[in-house]
């Protein structure tokens, strides 16, 4: 709280009272902290791949380039890290466009079933590699929903990416869809690592991760869920999560019926 007191005088120059101004600084402090946290987070996320790239480039220059097998291995690592940097900057740009309403949304009546079918083609190999079982539990004659098809695809990609990433081999990943009143409810579920109760309220914050060390190696940007949440909100829907450690997670969101 910021307080300032100014006395005021009457015609005889005697103090007749004072003006007290009180300003609640909590919100200003909160925004300031968010800003500095954001810069610290971005710098950290950029630094990790950059440090790795520098290390491998230096080793190559120091002579490793003369060994073709070794050189190729190092260049592959550099390529992967560059990919990570590109994903991170793409995600940051998307998020800032969504947050500042600069994104041109093309909202129309879309069939989520069709979109999910397209998305699952991308995941076929990864599901097989990790020996994960995938299935769908869709209500019959599922109504179309109001959404931008490209960004709805992104929502399912981000949620499925996490489900696959955080579920150990042999587990299950599935999508449920059900009509409820004037919305359709979608649930992206897995039998994976789950999220501790104390982390649940912060899971949709940008750069928030449950296990900083585990996620750092997994190639994620920590922005996936923040993007998903903003998109669902922009479509007029709602999103939340139900999860139990070592049992699995359900990311549930609603979209308005067409
Ligand atoms: P990341 O790129 O780290 O996956 P996200 O924003 O997509 O970033 O997710 C934030 C964090 O939420 C993750 O780092 C992870 O700790 C947790 N998380 C997200 N989805 C799941 C899931 N399906 N199972 C377990 N943990 C999850």
Task: Describe the protein's topology.
Layout: E1 2-9, E2 15-23, H1 26-61, H2 68-99, E3 108-110, H3 112-129, E4 133-138, E5 145-147, H4 149-165, E6 172-180, E7 183-190, H5 212-217, H6 224-234, E8 239-244, E9 248-256
Parallel strand pairs: 4-6
Antiparallel strand pairs: 1-2, 3-5, 6-7, 7-9, 8-9
The structure holds adenosine-5'-diphosphate (ADP).
Adenosine-5'-diphosphate is lined by residues 162-163, 166, 190, 192-195, 203, 208-211, 215, 220-226, 249.
GO molecular function: phosphoprotein phosphatase activity; phosphorelay sensor kinase activity
Protein name: histidine kinase
Subcellular location: Membrane
**Estimated radius of gyration:** 25 Å
- Average pLDDT confidence is 93
Main sheet characteristics: 5 strands, mixed
Can you tell me the overall shape?
extended
H and E order: EEHHEHEEHEEHHEE
- Cα separation of the termini: 48 Å
Report the helical percentage. 40-55%
Descriptive labels:
single chain; 258 residues; alpha+beta; two-stranded antiparallel ribbon; 9 strands; extended
Folded structure, characterized:
Strand 1 and strand 2 form a beta hairpin. The protein has helices at 26-61, 68-99, 112-129, 149-165, 212-217, 224-234, and strands at residues 2-9, 15-23, 108-110, 133-138, 145-147, 172-180, 183-190, 239-244, 248-256. The protein is extended and about 90 Å long. 21% of the residues are buried. A 5-stranded mixed beta sheet has the order 4-6-7-9-8. Strands 1-2 form a two-stranded antiparallel ribbon. Strands 3-5 form a two-stranded antiparallel ribbon. The chain has 6 helices and 9 strands, in the order ββααβαββαββααββ. The longest helix has 36 residues, at 26-61. The two termini are 48 Å apart. By secondary structure, it is an alpha+beta fold. The chain binds adenosine-5'-diphosphate. Adenosine-5'-diphosphate is lined by residues 162-163, 166, 190, 192-195, 203, 208-211, 215, 220-226, 249. Residues 41-258 form the Histidine kinase domain. GO terms for molecular function: phosphoprotein phosphatase activity; phosphorelay sensor kinase activity. One of its GO terms (biological process) is regulation of DNA-templated transcription. It is found in: Membrane. This is histidine kinase.
